[in-house]
């Protein structure tokens, strides 16, 4: 079976500063994959390059076998990629419900599409806050809303950039539980996060990035059993 998302030899940067030096990544349908590494190593630039938010200088990005490198971000999203961006970026002057319905679409005719009812079942707190504006929510509630908003596009792949950064332990547990449910339902997921322990439970495969290139890849058992790799590249 072919890859759902495949990145090959991705090179990119900002101005004269090169950030990505031949990035590679593969996610198959239904897989949960992580992109790990210290700050400033190119993880968010990789995500922006996938989504068409930052043009790559060189390389290939394929989704579902089709080239998406060079497409504008709205067309990438329509291909079936949902993004939960770093910093959440919910619409502050729209209610929770308006934030969710603003992105609602089912372009690929899913058998059990994401609806308001399903989002509220996944995150009951959003149902309680349905009439509140985005800027009236806590950080944890905003993250739940950002995840829900991405799911309302009914993507084939969900990307989360800093999935639980700055959240309380209780809210983190809710986010990890939601991602575990999505994984069981067969959604492909790409996660960037610094909390390694839950990622080792959740993910099928891990890519560690150092200075814009992959320096290690393997499954959770391999990463769990290699403290030298964790210490060298993750400080864990």
For this entry, give a set of tags:
four-stranded antiparallel sheet, six-stranded mixed sheet, Rossmann fold, globular, 25% strand, 10 strands, alpha/beta, 236 residues, 10 helices
Write down the Rg.
17 Å
Alpha-carbon distance between the two ends: 34 Å
Which residue ranges are poorly predicted, with pLDDT under 50 across at least 5 consecutive positions?
none
Strand order of the largest sheet: 6-7-8-3-9-10
Helix content: 25-40%
What is the helix/strand order?
EEEHEEHEHHHHEHEHEEHH
Q: What report would you give on this structure?
A:
The protein has 236 residues and is of the alpha/beta class. The chain has one domain: 3-Layer(aba) Sandwich (Rossmann fold), CATH 3.40.50. Helices cover 36% and strands 25% of the residues. Strand 4 and strand 5 form a beta hairpin. Helix 3 packs parallel to helix 6. The longest helix is centred in the last third of the chain and has 16 residues. The model has no long low-confidence stretch (mean pLDDT 94).
């Amino acid at each position: 079976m072919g890859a759902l998302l495949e990145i090959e030899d991705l090179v990119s940067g900002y101005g004269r500063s090169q950030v990505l030096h031949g990035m590679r990544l593969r996610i198959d349908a239904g897989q949960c994959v992580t992109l790990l590494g210290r700050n400033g190593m190119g993880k968010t630039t990789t995500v922006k390059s996938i989504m068409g938010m930052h043009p790559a200088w060189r390389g290939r990005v394929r989704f579902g076998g089709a080239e998406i490198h060079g497409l504008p971000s709205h067309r990438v999203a329509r291909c079936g990629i949902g993004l939960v961006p770093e910093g959440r970026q919910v619409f502050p002057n729209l209610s929770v419900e308006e934030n969710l319905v603003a992105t609602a679409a089912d372009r690929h005719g899913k058998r059990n599409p994401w609806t308001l009812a399903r989002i509220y079942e996944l995150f009951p707190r959003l149902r309680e806050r349905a009439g509140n504006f985005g800027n009236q929510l806590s950080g944890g509630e905003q993250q739940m809303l950002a995840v829900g908003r991405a799911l309302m596009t009914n993507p084939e792949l969900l990307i989360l950039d800093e999935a639980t950064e700055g959240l309380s332990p209780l809210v983190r547990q809710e986010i990890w539980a939601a991602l575990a449910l999505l994984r069981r339902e067969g959604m492909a997921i790409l996660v960037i996060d610094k909390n390694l322990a839950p990622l080792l439970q959740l993910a099928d495969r891990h890519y560690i990035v150092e200075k814009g290139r992959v320096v290690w890849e393997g499954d959770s058992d391999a990463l769990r059993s290699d403290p030298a790799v964790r210490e060298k590249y993750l400080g864990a």
